[in-house]
Amino acid sequence: MNVKKIELLSPAKNLVCGVEAINHGADAVYIGAPCFGARAAVGNSIEDIATLSDYAHRYFAKVYVALNTLLYDDELIEAQRIIKNLYNIGADAIIIQDFGILKLDIPPIALHASTQMNIRTAGKVRFLQDIGFNRVVLARELSLQEITDISNNTDVELEAFVHGALCASYSGQCYISEYSCKRSANRGNCAQYCRLPYTLKDATDKVIAENKYLLSLKDLDRSDYLSEMINAGICSFKIEGRLKNLDYVKNITAFYRQKLDALLEIDNSLSRTSAGAGTFYFTPNPQKTFHRSKTDFLLHGNKDNVSYIDTPKSTGEYVGNVLKVGRKCFYIDSQTALSNGDGLCFYQDGELVGLRINNIEDKKIYVFGDLLPEAGDKIYRNFDIKFNKQLEKKSAERRVGVRMLFSETAGGYRIDAIDETGISISQEFVCEKQSADKPELMFENIKLQLAKTGDTIYKVDAVEISETSLPSFIPSSVLAKWRREIICKLDESRKVILTQNKIYFELDKGCRSEFYADKVISYRDNIMNFKAAEFYRDHGAKNIVFAFEQQQPTEAVLMQCRFCIKNTLGLCPKQTGNQRDDYKEPYYLFSIGNKYRLEFDCGLCEMKVMGE
Hints:
Layout: E1 4-12, H1 15-23, E2 28-32, H2 46-57, E3 62-67, H3 76-89, E4 93-96, E5 110-113, H4 122-131, E6 135-137, H5 144-152, E7 157-164, H6 176-181, E8 198-201, E9 207-212, E10 220-221, H7 226-232, E11 236-239, H8 246-266, E12 270-272, E13 277-280, E14 317-326, E15 329-333, E16 343-348, E17 351-361, E18 364-367, E19 378-383, H9 385-392, E20 396-408, E21 412-419, E22 424-430, E23 434-435, H10 439-451, E24 458-465, E25 472-473, H11 476-500, H12 530-538, E26 557-561, H13 565-568, H14 573-576, E27 588-591, E28 594-601, E29 606-611
Parallel strand pairs: 1-2, 1-11, 1-12, 2-3, 3-4, 4-5, 5-6, 6-7, 7-11, 20-24
Antiparallel strand pairs: 7-10, 8-9, 8-27, 13-20, 14-15, 14-19, 15-18, 16-17, 16-19, 17-18, 20-21, 21-22, 23-25, 26-29, 27-28, 28-29
């Protein structure tokens, strides 16, 4: 039977987050390189990435390093140097967007095609597969059917986002930040214009919506559809969040670890890609860390409203409604156990505002400050003090299961150790045998001493003693010494296996697919440097226009979106069954002095935000 390997991939803002992601069940983590990552604010040193790699590899977990920005010509040599360093320290893959990297002198480190490459079709995936990519990260907007079609027509590993913040635009196709304030999303400096308030007007200047977060989306949560995504062909489930804090990484990683383990438990055709079972000292709950409601985001088609236009902030979990208001207090109808110090929030005049609990008397909530809700207001908790205190402490432990076999030999004794992945080692220990005064206690002591693993990554699940072994006396100190030696030998054996299973990148330099032949090569193909242009010419491109950041076009698509403001506001003719004539197109968005025109393709259910 073919067993499909399933990977849980977690974000790491830094070394600490990466280590805790591993502890909380991640099969792999992705972390920013010293520079050139799509989150410029969270670069990491080569030394920290090396430390994280060493730690992860003990569990057969992997470390992928993001270098997924567009590069200027004078940055290519530095990128090449970083990639060589990452290869030398044992990083498992790099995630890239810029094809210019493929024209550099780089070592055979595995390559993952970033979602910034705008990967939406089987043809694009097959092209990336043919030139040697080990994995592609699919666009978040794809439906299950589209993922299935890609999987059925390609052989490369498919990775998909499963949780976290969503961008309004297709990744790699958002230029609104660069256009509006010279901060390029494709250079890791997105100013998050999708989280700003906008006013929407029609062609006659009639206001359709005022001061709403019209480009802000709910957070992705596909935890209920993991099995469907596996069946569609996904092998790696990616949690968004390289800017997120440690509590988020711990909580969300543990939550998806439990979800995936439940599937693996009932389906022996699936297995995880790393080793080690986790013990959690808290109950994971995604509503208790940054949470803007949730959506499966088009996984089952355009069936629900994916927008979150009232606020870009975290609302957390709904806890109840306000019954009445007193002096510095209010009464709440809630079944949720609240605590002193909890952070609550509610909407006041259309804006989300927050307060902190000072004291609780049954359903009577005293707060710090003068801000109070009104009767009937819905109350949310976006900071659970008890939950966060649990996460501030040691909140998980991960151990690799081992079985020990103890037997007697002619010259002494032998210990075999078999870890949960099937890796086994054995060692014979020569010693003089002495009769035991209390044989039954000696056997118990052998089991006791061999089961002690202290601060190692192992957990001994069973110690078996051969029935032919005589009940001889062995000092506890000797057994402890033997245990340490066998564990050390197991460590070394597992390192060898890990090295043997390493995946490498093989660039097919003879591949001339003509994939880009007869295609319009525009600024939206994100060609920033001459090496990237050379790569495109190798694959059929004739006329090349350089990236938006190099020369802003006069007529530019700033965002291409598979969600639509018309749908959000109930103005979609497909949704309502008739064309609204009370508003005249084109529609315009206004925010902080900027004006953007909207274009709608109802056939494709897409919206474009255009520069004016």
